[in-house]
Structures
1.
Amino acid sequence: MNAKKWIAGALAAGMLLTTNLMITEAAEMTERKEAVKVVQTAGRDKLGDFAPDFARYNDDILFGEVWSKNDVLSLHDRSIVTVSALVASGIIDSSLKYHIESAKKNGVTKDEMAEIITQLGFYAGWPKAWAAFNMAKEVYAAP
């Protein structure tokens, strides 16, 4: 009789372990995302003749490899990091506008952008936040 209880217990433990492994595997499959290839040609379009290596690094490495690792860090989150870095660095030019537009395309909402820039105002500087707000208002006003 003890053998029967032991066998029943071992079978139950095996079933529980198998169920836990299946649940874990299903959760991992759900969490896995497929990377979306990002294609960028701005480097070659604007600098291809003048600085072909820089253009290639921009298009193939920065966007083609780094931004395409969006299965690890989403395009939404990469946009937030990039806009934050540009504002904090005081880069308030067409590159910031481009990245705010990209952030909008990547799902960063107007409310999120306003909160991001507000937060940056305290850490990166109030004037930088004011300048970024002017660009963000322009981008988010457009349909």
2.
Amino acid sequence: MAQGRSAGRPKNTMRSPELAQSYIDAFAAARNFEELQDILARACVAAGFRYYALTQHADFKPGRSKLLRMHNYPAGYAFWFDARRLGKNDPVHRASQLRTSGFRWSEIAGLIDFTADDELVFAQARACGIGDGFTVPGNVTGELSGSISFAMGVGEVIDDDAIQFARLISTYAFDRARVLSGTRPFRQHAPITLRQRACLLWSSKGKTDEQTASIMGISRNTVLGHMRAVRDTYDSPSRLYVVVVALFEGTICFSDILDA
């Protein structure tokens, strides 16, 4: 995805909730990645940061151009990062998989098993001019994990207003990027009925057709008919495949399956 739009650091910026809302509205109206990245670069400046990175956590290499990534990190750092295939192992990315809320980079050593290699990543970032930062996770079940980060220059301090502004806008930017990329085909199949969903859910919990029939108070043949209809809807003879796709599309969710 696109990368490299610049952002400078403003002076005396009023980072009000109203200003954050204006960027949230602008993200929602973005028609393509170029517009989204322009808005993200301006939001970075408005927040008081110097750098931004919206990315999925994967190794970026030829043939994986559909992955989400837009940033304005120095080219030297991006080249160093990609050459070492740090998309999955970067300490910021690993920490974001353990949090649902945003975190300062200064907290990372307490969130993960911090190694000498992790310190090398931050040392290289500092050598390229990237200082402290703040990251908001962008993790969605069924998709690659992701995040959106904002960073200062070396020696610059993140203030509380910048953190709050970043918290307010980040998830909206990430969600809009997902929609524009087609990362998740939100629904590829026709909706199933409530009875069909119930049969699918009991099947996903490991219940047999006989057990499902007893639980639902219907006949085994009725359960078989519902499950046949579900498989037809998802165009697959495999119940396992149907469960996976239904989870991906949000027809059922993990909490439904794991709930006793």
